[in-house]
Amino acid sequence: MEKPILLKTTCSKSVIDDLKDIIIRNVDQLDFPEEENDSIRIKHFLIKRKNNQWNVYDFKEKKGLGKFFSKAIAIVSIKNMNREIYYYDRMLEKHSNDIMFYQYSYSNTDDPIRKEIAEIRYNESVLAISNIKQKLRKMINTLN
User: Fold this and answer.
1) d(C-alpha 27, C-alpha 47), whole Å
2) d(C-alpha 26, C-alpha 71), whole Å
3) pLDDT (tens digit, 9 = 90+) per residue, 73-86?
4) Exposed, middle or buried: residue 48 (CB in 10 Å: 0-12, 13-18, 19+)?
5) Which of 23, 24, 29, 73 is least enclosed, having the fewest CB within 10 Å?
6) Rounded to whole angstroms, how far apart are CA atoms 55 and 12?
7) Could you please report the per-residue DSSP string of 32-51?
8) 81 to each of 40, 65, 89, 123, how far by Cα in Å?
């Protein structure tokens, strides 16, 4: 087995320091999320779970940005706050509640018509949630 060839390079201390500065400057510009228990910090934002909702706070502006049903929507709201975000959040919450209701209705009825109706509505809500999640993924990808 051959030994690898090691190249000996000489760099001045100032070149190495300049490279370190460039790397540190670029790392500082990134938004690294820090997750701890039920809270997430991104830059000067805090996303915290409280009473089955995700609350978003902006410490720079010293105000709350909103309360969201979905953790993903709370994260997206930091970069893109508009009415569409609130609409998707409310629809996600509505269809999640509907799914629980239709599951309960399906399992607690003996009427075949009611079972069929609950199953159809359940499937519609599942489809609606998958469409909302797909739209959210597109929104997240356009933010990067």
Assistant:
1) 22
2) 27
3) 888 787 766 678 88
4) middle
5) 29
6) 50
7) --EEETTEEEETTEEEEEET
8) 18, 9, 12, 30
